[in-house]
């Protein structure tokens, strides 16, 4: 049961990430008008790295919850 809820949390996170990515894209379009390409590329890399780290963290937590709570 807990495993199911942990995967529901992951699914909700995926949906939230889609809206965050859309917001980032809109923000990026506005920033692109005001920023040089080099600065924009550096900003985009930082955002991508943080997003990637967040997904690994969510996946690890979901897997940990799945295996931990199923043992009890």
UniProtKB/TrEMBL annotation:
The chain crosses the membrane at residues 53-69. Keywords: Membrane, Transmembrane, Transmembrane helix. This is Uncharacterized protein. It comes from Ligilactobacillus pobuzihii.
């Amino acid at each position: 049961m807990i495993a199911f809820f942990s995967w529901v949390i992951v699914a909700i996170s995926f949906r939230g990430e889609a809206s965050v990515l859309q917001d980032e894209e809109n923000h990026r379009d506005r920033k692109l008008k005001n920023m040089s390409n080099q600065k924009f590329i550096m900003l985009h890399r930082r955002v991508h790295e943080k997003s990637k780290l967040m997904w690994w963290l969510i996946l690890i937590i979901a897997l940990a919850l799945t295996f931990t709570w199923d043992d009890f």
